[in-house]
Amino acid sequence: GTSEEYALELYDFNTGEVVRKKSVYFSSGDSKIVFDKVKPSTYTVYFSSASCPKKRSIKIKEGIVVQ
Hints:
The chain is mainly β and 67 residues long. The chain has strands at residues 4-12, 17-26, 41-49, 56-57, 64-66. A hairpin with a 4-residue loop joins strand 1 and strand 2.
């Protein structure tokens, strides 16, 4: 993708709530840990940026399972 700042939201499927929000700058090809020390649950991450303001989620149908 594009190098820019992204707004990220960690959404808990079990509670139906956004549990954490962060703004992080990513350069093309970056890999970063953004959310850590999360409680066991099933999550997705929503993201948006200035060039793509529509909120989107990562493409994992069953979510991210943290046990």
